[in-house]
Amino acid sequence: MLFCLTGKPIRMTWTRLAATAAAGDTEIELEWGQADWPVGGTIVIATTGDRHSQAQTETRTITDISDDGTVITLDEALE
Q1: Does the N-terminal or the C-terminal CB of the chain have fewer CB atoms within 10 Å?
Q2: pTM: predicted TM-score of the whole model, two decimal places
């Protein structure tokens, strides 16, 4: 069996939010800048609750990143 992964290496694959992401937010603020996350890339915003809250995990596309990499604009509002 052959298994091949291709793509651009990403230095930091995860981070923490600097502030709580609320329903209706179209931007999230990160603790650390993400200069190598691409606009157009897909991210997953995971819940921090117990196993019953796993359905609250959301997937979004990055539409913009602030110059310092700490504010990510999403393609649609969080639920």
Answers
A1: N
A2: 0.81
